[in-house]
Amino acid sequence: MISITDEHYNNRNYLSSKYKITPRITPIIVTLYDVKVTEFEMQKYIEHGLKIVRFRLTKHTIEEKIKLLDHLKRAVKVFCQKYEICDWPVAVSIDLANGCIFTGFLSEEIPDNFVILKKDSIIELTSDMKYCFKCDAKRIFMNDPYTLPAIPVGAEIYLDFGEVVMVCVKIVNNKTIKCKVIKEGEINDQQKVCIRGVKHLKPALSKRDLEDIEFAKTYKCDIIIINTVRNPLLIEKLKALFKDSHIPLFLSVICDQEGLDNVKEIIAVSDGLVLAREYLACSIEKPGQLLKIQLQVGALCKMQEKHFFVSGHILQESLLIGHLVESDISDVTMALKQGAGLFLRSYSNECTMNQIYTLINNICLDEDPILMKTQHFSDIPCKIPLNAAETCIQASILTAKLVDAKVIIVPTVTGQTVMQLSNICENIFIVAVSKSPVVARKLQLFRGVIALPYDDNTAAFWESEKHPRIKFGAAYAFKFEILKYRCPFVALRKATSCSSYSDQVDVWSLTEKEHVRLQIKLKQSLQGR
């Protein structure tokens, strides 16, 4: 493993004090794919602001999946005790492999856990199931019997996102083609397969995907990430499967040209979009236009007020060289300025993932103050409101800009007001106070949102509870150091218990005396747990 070193980003310690937690605006989805990951390792991620975790469930048994969820739950509990906070909701997302194409498993006769495909060698690529567990240097299994017959002579085939590149030289039959290796490399079990310029014909959902969906329904996973979404019908079908259970958020991943062609329709039915740059670089006919595609898709997401993430090629060159490269930092900062979240997929081992996540987290913390200062009134997409609820949301944002407030505190039940706030005003902290842990976890996906579960049931009436909720959010904003003494913040809440939406905008400011009183009350509530 090559270690990335950088004096500035590696030496920064944002959690040097026991009581210091520095949240960031940009949401980052982190993949924990190894069942051997420990509670301590999960806690380290949480200490650096982890709010969304992605589990790759394809290769795991039910027992291993439950074990991962239990590790996460205990890691959150230890973290909260260590930093003296009530709760830190972490949204759990699962991955549906659905349309992705994989190779098979290496033959048991191969002593190593990898095989080297040498340049100019001829390889058979087959979809014959009898070779699924017999891959070697002469024959590779591909788990898509639908797309393989459509591969023409001359098509480029990428294994493991370009680790090995082959070109089709001969069609043997409907199950087998012969390929010539033009870039040698090593592969192991179940590597991703991408084919440039060929339409994927593999069915959208498999039996294993349906099993993972049942797991998500049983354990109430917060986010479903659907790989290789080619049209909006798949998302509508998945939503129908959840109609009798809790409704998660759906993130669509664009991996090929067909998905790009239907991206507007896909955005419309999804809760967010992931642009899989690692897949697109190996599948579309013009990979040189990837930056242009990223800007266009990001703009479409912003127009439809949907969240946008990018994955792949994140600090890629830095990983190869061993130190941070300016082009990699520019790539990350450009994505942040575009309002995009970051999606960190699997790396070679957990140590590399932890290091990459720490570096990106520190880059985000450097960039956040700049983004908050540079956003102008003209950057806020304030369209003509359709109803009074939208009017109040826009009023809270404009008020925050007028008084130079860095925080908006919103007591919420369903989270809809917070979601709309986040979609309109990206570069501001929104402290969401909710009694529902499920709502709090879902809100962690949204840019700039700090979701806090509120479980104080001492107030008998709504009127006696509305101010404590605001002060509860303010106390944590001070604790997280995003709010300072006497600095104004905006509160968006219901004016009366009969209001059907948040219709009151206030400007608050807490004195040092009030802050100390709130901290004492907060510590007493923690000791009573």
Automatic annotation (TrEMBL):
Gene3D superfamilies, alphabetized: Phosphoenolpyruvate-binding domains, PK beta-barrel domain-like, Pyruvate kinase, C-terminal domain
Keywords: ATP-binding, Glycolysis, Kinase, Magnesium, Metal-binding, Nucleotide-binding, Pyruvate, Transferase
Catalysed reactions listed for this entry: pyruvate + ATP = phosphoenolpyruvate + ADP + H(+)
Pathway terms, separated by semicolons: Carbohydrate degradation; glycolysis; pyruvate from D-glyceraldehyde 3-phosphate: step 5/5
GO molecular function: ATP binding; kinase activity; magnesium ion binding; potassium ion binding; pyruvate kinase activity
Enzyme class: transferase
EC number: 2.7.1.40
Residue intervals of the Pyruvate kinase barrel domain: 26-341
Pfam families attached to this UniProt entry: PK, PK_C
Origin superkingdom: Eukaryota
InterPro entries recorded: Pyr_Knase, Pyrv/PenolPyrv_kinase-like_dom, Pyrv_kinase-like_dom_sf, Pyrv_Knase-like_insert_dom_sf, Pyrv_Knase_brl, Pyrv_Knase_C, Pyrv_Knase_C_sf, Pyrv_Knase_insert_dom_sf
CC cofactor: K(+)
SUPFAM superfamilies for this protein: Phosphoenolpyruvate/pyruvate domain (SSF51621), PK beta-barrel domain-like (SSF50800), PK C-terminal domain-like (SSF52935)
Annotated Pyruvate kinase C-terminal domain residues: 390-482
Similarity comment: family membership: Belongs to the pyruvate kinase family.
This protein's name: Pyruvate kinase
Organism: Arctia plantaginis
